[in-house]
Write a structure and sequence with these properties.
Chains A, B, C: GO terms for molecular function: aspartate carbamoyltransferase activity. Three copies of one chain form a homotrimer. By secondary structure, chain A is α/β, with parallel strands linked by helices. The first copy, chain A, is built from 13 helices and 13 strands. The two termini of chain A are 32 Å apart. Chains in contact: A-B, A-C, B-C.
Chain lengths: 357, 357, 357
């Protein structure tokens, strides 16, 4: 059985199919209005996230399905210290498919290993948030008509923004995309993300104005004062990274501005009325791509072999990342897959932390 | 597009139509069982209110629609400091109509100004609660067979009871209604409410017994000990304002007793079995009138011009009411409409606070 | 009208019918997919219990019905100090049937006395949890093919486990069942439970190994360290009461292991893969038996005479159990039914506490 724990669980072909189905749903909603009649989606939100929860719930309801779930762990048995494994095994008795958001990295991956029903990762700590990436891909495909031959400018906190990391990874699979990273030095894009892109296709830029004129896609992210070693530094730099009406003048007429939302102040409100601002439509695309995802996972009956098992090379008792679910749930061994045979880099099966062994 | 932020958003004709539709739903529920099939209602409760939330959710579900929502702000993105404007713009991507309860006065009004879907005010702080008023009108119409030629006694906290204020305003539009206000001096009905009624049609009374024999409708409200300057005063006075079996003996056989609920102790339980007590049926009427309201707003496709804009006379940067949403959300200017040309009284577009300018 | 407050509300015949309907639903789900179309279930959870709430919500949704409700009292009007009586009378305006979980003993019983719709007890403090018992009966019937001629071993905390008490009571109505109670001395099965069983049909055993070979059904329960007068005692004894792979070797090939869940550590994970472990299927049976229960209560139109009233012998102003709802809600008198005419034992109508009078 298939799950959706990270974007790489789907091939490039599967991602493009997903986008095509989402587009068909937008054009022919009535065709899908009863597709999930009599089916239940469990929304297991161990930390609150209204936007993501609403998007999944609206997706299932618009497919004619129904919802059970909780929106914060306090309301749930987990407060009685039940293990994630037991929780998912019980949920699988009541629901046909589950969406999990968890503060621990790898929690949805662990759940999927013990689940009789498809599990979708709706965000696990700072680790993965794959349906945000599929949302972004659908948005670009809809607004630009393509996923290749694009100049993509990513601006803000590029170090901690997980959605940026997996978007770059996904878009680098398509031909002739060039990436421009605009961020303060404390919040630079990590090397492992650059490793997805071939040398000549990315550039690190110090100011938004310089690069805006050539951008096809501008992807803005939250930039939190607290992230700066010295908060004064933030006040000094923020004008370089905040998008406003004046900067929009520099951009192409057909450029698009994206943002995962919620936005704080990195995009000033005077940009909202600009037709190039697509961050609210982006939210709507997120609902449709999740409808397509639910349909896909519910259709796939055949048991899938756990791809990880095959590439598993090492087993250790723990992972050194203290946010990794393997340090919070009882388990015999943690698997570490071989990431880089030359440098002997291994990666944790749950949180993807890398180690030289 | 139409919203329902305060009772005066609807004309007298629209209110009577709303009541007629509610009655038709009660008589022919099956006719409406699928009216909202495939539509989603978002219930945005920034403060808890089970009764009101259940009433709206039951209304939508009995129309064949579905629900997404939150029942307290902590579970929602707003805890991440997202603005009301951004929240409603996102919700509008997922849902077809929204109900908002908020602790800030004018919050639903602000939301409606940025919303692509109809917004219903389910209570904004101490300001407005229009669907309680439509509930009260349907209850009187059902139980008394008319909305005019009534002796209406309102008892308890008439100063802080927003539902009382807008009920008086609504009923004063109908012919030959007389109002009797029974309250302790600290909790008298405000002058601005009296200004809705013509001089000869209202009286302030000190005790409930005195006026009960001539009442057609008795509207009881919560009377909170804390409201009294001197709590001992409460114990001395409360017998004057608490309804019990003995007082009911004084009332007409066809009088009705109403209460917005929840009641604390202002109506003793020995009254519950009296067939003149209609405060529980009143709750049921509330569900049906909300079904009619959802149907009305969803039907009205055409964009409505913002009536306020036309009557707007003054723009200032802030409103002096610190509970007004304009002091908590970023906005350029607050509009002040001319309420009283003689006395030069202006009213805030969000919280309706009055100022002489 | 019928309610389901404790297992004894249903006759043995009704319980077996309930099980038969549950089995028919499992075999022909589509036959029941729209049975509750247009009907609303209110889930009133005054304390959180995800498992039980999900089970009821999934049951109603799989019958084509809909849900309104709250999952903890804080989100509800009860935080405004509304009485249970008023709450249920209001809920009855919106919903067609209600499920209540409450921290006070007898709260659902009180609600049922004031409700116009069927009320189901989903657990009231340490008192009753009847749908767990119907779940257990369906599980045994499905997995063993019978409810009689069984050797039933109950292990763990038999003193505080309400589910154990009412399961023993229910199974003792069926022929030739023998009960084996395995527990530390501090947590022995209470005498009143033994009084349901005839002398020759139960035995108290000190260790699980000794009795396991002859068991047809092993019912494990949570055993909380805190329950021990001396926690060290727990560490010394726990091996006697924790089930693991090695102990399973002693058991029959067709024995079944049950647990109400959530489990903490009384069953080690190495047992989960054993096909005799049925505690997760048990959760699924719980959903189906609740579907049957909802169908039964919704079908029974006729008003049922309150059986309690008939057997009521004494009225007093209070019950001595400070967790009894009668000490927390305003009420004239509490009824005490005659339980044992010889010993003059009377039982409280709400919490079933016994008193010699």
């Amino acid at each position: 059985m298939r799950h959706f724990i990270e974007v790489s669980d789907f091939s490039r072909q599967e991602l493009t199919n997903l986008i095509d189905v989402a587009k068909d749903i937008m054009e022919n909603p009535s065709k899908y209005a009863d597709a999930m009649k009599g089916r239940l989606l469990a929304t297991l939100f161990y930390e609150p996230s209204t936007r993501t929860r609403f998007s999944f719930e609206a997706a299932m309801l618009r497919l004619g399905g129904q919802i059970i779930g909780f929106s914060e762990a306090q309301n749930s048995s987990v407060s009685k210290g039940e293990s994630i494994k037991d929780t998912i095994r019980t949920i699988a008795c009541y629901a046909d498919i589950a969406v999990m958001r968890h503060y621990l990295e790898g929690a949805p991956k662990l759940a999927s290993a013990y689940s009789d029903i498809p599990v979708i990762n709706a965000g696990d700590g700072g680790h993965q948030h794959p349906t945000q990436t599929t949302t972004d891909l659908l948005t670009i495909s809809m607004e630009k008509g393509r996923l290749d031959n694009l100049n993509i400018v990513l601006c803000g906190d590029l170090k901690n923004g997980r959605t940026v990391h997996s978007l770059v990874k996904a878009l680098s699979q398509f031909e002739n995309n060039t990436f421009y990273f605009v961020s303060p030095k404390e919040l630079k894009i990590p090397d492992y993300v650059k490793s997805y892109i071939k040398e000549s296709s990315f550039f690190e830029v110090s100011s938004l104005e310089d690069i805006l004129p050539s951008a096809d896609v501008l992807y803005m992210t939250r930039i939190q004062k607290e992230r700066f070693e010295n908060p004064k530094e933030y006040d000094r730099l923020k004008d370089l990274f905040i998008l406003n009406k004046n900067k929009m003048i520099l951009a192409k007429k057909d450029m698009i501005v994206m943002h995962p939302l919620p936005r704080v102040n990195e995009i000033s409100e005077d940009v909202d009325k600009d037709k190039r601002a697509v961050y609210f439509p982006q939210a709507k695309y997120g609902m449709y791509v999740r409808m397509a995802l639910i349909l896909k996972l519910m259709k796939e009956k055949e048991q899938s072999k756990d791809d990880f098992e095959d590439s598993r090379h090492q087993l250790y008792s723990t992972c050194d990342n203290n946010k990794c679910v393997s340090n919070h749930e009882k388990m015999d061994k943690v698997g570490f897959g071989l990431l880089d045979p030359e440098k002997h880099i291994y990666t944790c099966e749950y949180c993807d932390s890398n180690y030289a062994m």
